[in-house]
TrEMBL record:
This is Multidrug transporter subunit MdtD. It comes from the Bacteria. It is found in: Cell membrane. It comes from Caballeronia jiangsuensis. Keywords: Cell membrane, Membrane, Transmembrane, Transmembrane helix, Transport. The lineage of its organism: Bacteria, Pseudomonadati, Pseudomonadota, Betaproteobacteria, Burkholderiales.
Length: 477
């Protein structure tokens, strides 16, 4: 049973709490994309190569993936108010430290701090809404909270480029500080506190196995290209990550209350959807990192121009969300996902034809088409994964799904950075002033990886069509 505040909060307090949670979600999603267009400026400031800045993005998304399983348990044990306040405080301190970083290593370390706070903003805030709002107002409240989460990725690249152009890259982090201070004050005054006295013990052994596995996998993939690790160390890390994941599977079969029950994988749509999400999102996670780099490093765009070029991707993506529902109803999940996954891969590979002489209208059209099919992919994958969970597995399944989303985003940037760095060293026509051939080869590889994921969705039963579970409004991407 959940222990909530004795008095029901007033409508004013509830409204302020909604704005507070929505703002936290906005800050979290904004910082997932705002950095991408600022990476070349950061590299110049810190004396690093622009093509070796992926650690700044990886550190944030990987930390968020690692913290997702912990956030709900902490809120149950310590209370939503205390944990949400701590999340905003840590996120704000991490943002301030990022702005003060004097080296790439320091910036990556401070992004980890920022990610610890950012990872708890949405799940804890959403839990607070669930516990305080009456059932009849829950969906509308959650939809309100979700809107800023859609706006954050939409304006992130453009805002990041604009701040770099009018001020410096430091301001993409400094803008979080005043918002964070106000958020801490508002949380202390208006956030109702609730906790669950009957919280089960945390599955520490299972969590450590998953965390070590994720970190080892990420470092091994990035090790050869960016970290300069020897082949033997990379192989050891890959074996370690595989061993940790297998060990977790064995642990989960005998643990009384594992973090993620393996029974979830008995649900056909969930298992196919989750595995498809993991691999398809590697390409989708790579593109927001690669496209601004291509535009600035190889095609001579400013940070602001590169950010503006990302608007067609977001606008076309939002416009196409309704179309995919009709397609699924008519053709079923398997056919839609198999065809659309191949289309997404082809559109990614099409950036391998980019050149300085490409007409602007054609580049804008290319970005818009990619944004459209990529958004349709997200919507179809998300609804497939969550549609048959039911009430029993919804909480655990949704947490595992969120972890996979953040992990695949981290892996996407890791894989893209490793491939780009490899081709930069291998291709003879790549010089210090001409990195375009390396980008061409990288986009081709990312497209092939994504298109190959269609085989996973091909394992779906052909009759899977109707969505039985109404998706959470905040699970749009």
């Amino acid at each position: 049973m959940t222990d909530t505040a004795a008095a029901q909060p007033s409508d004013r307090s509830l409204s302020i709490m909604l704005w507070l949670v929505a703002t936290g979600f906005f800050m979290q999603t904004l910082d997932s994309t705002i950095v991408n267009t600022a990476l070349p400026a950061m590299a110049r400031s810190l004396g690093e190569a622009p093509l070796r800045m992926q650690g700044v993005v990886i550190a944030y998304s990987l930390t968020m993936a690692m913290m997702i399983p912990v956030s709900g348990w902490l809120a149950d044990k310590l209370g939503t108010k205390r944990v949400f306040f701590s999340a905003i405080l840590v996120f704000t301190i991490g943002s301030l430290l990022c702005a003060k970083a004097q080296s790439l290593q320091a910036l990556v370390a401070y992004r980890v701090v920022q990610g610890v706070g950012g990872a708890m903003l949405l799940p804890v805030g959403r839990l607070a809404v669930l516990r305080v709002f009456p059932a009849e107002r829950y969906l509308s409240a959650l939809a309100f909270v979700a809107i800023p989460g859609l706006i954050g990725p939409l304006i992130g690249p453009t805002l990041g480029g604009w701040l770099v152009q009018i001020a410096s890259w430091h301001w993409i982090f400094l803008i979080n500080v005043p918002v964070g201070v106000i958020g801490c004050i508002a949380t202390n005054l208006y956030m109702p506190d609730s906790r669950n006295p009957a919280t089960a013990p945390f599955d520490l052994a299972g969590y450590l196995l998953l965390a070590v596995g994720m970190v080892a996998l990420t470092i091994s993939l990035d090790g050869l290209a960016d970290l300069g690790l020897q082949h033997a160390i990379v192989i050891v890390l890959l074996v370690l990550s595989f061993g940790c994941f297998v060990a977790y599977g064995l642990h989960a079969t005998r643990a009384a209350q594992p973090i993620f029950s393996l029974d979830l994988f008995k649900i056909h749509t969930f298992s196919v959807g989750l595995l498809g999400n993991l691999f398809a999102r590697i390409g989708s996670g790579a593109m927001p990192y690669l496209i601004p780099l291509l535009l600035q490093v190889s095609l001579g765009y400013t940070a602001f121009q590169a950010g503006m070029m990302m608007l067609p991707v977001a606008a076309a993506g939002m416009a196409s969300k309704r179309a995919v529902t009709r397609l699924i109803e008519k053709h079923g999940y398997r056919r839609v996902l198999v065809v659309n996954t191949v289309l997404v891969g082809l559109m990614m590979a099409s950036f391998g034809l980019a050149s300085a002489h490409q007409p602007l209208w054609l580049r804008l059209a290319q970005l818009a088409v990619f944004g459209s099919v990529n958004s349709m992919q997200f919507t179809a994958m998300n609804t497939l994964t969550l549609k048959d969970l039911g009430t029993g597995g919804a909480s655990s399944g949704n947490s595992l799904f969120s972890l996979v989303q953040m992990l695949s985003m981290s892996l996407g940037v890791t894989v893209a950075g490793a491939i780009l760095s490899t081709f930069t060293g291998l291709l003879p026509q790549v010089t210090e002033t001409n990195s375009l051939p390396a980008f061409h080869a990288t986009f081709m590889c990312v497209g092939i990886i994504t298109a190959a994921t269609a085989w996973i969705f091909g394992q779906l039963a052909p009759e899977v069509r109707a969505t039985r579970r109404k998706p959470d409004p905040s699970e749009s991407n």
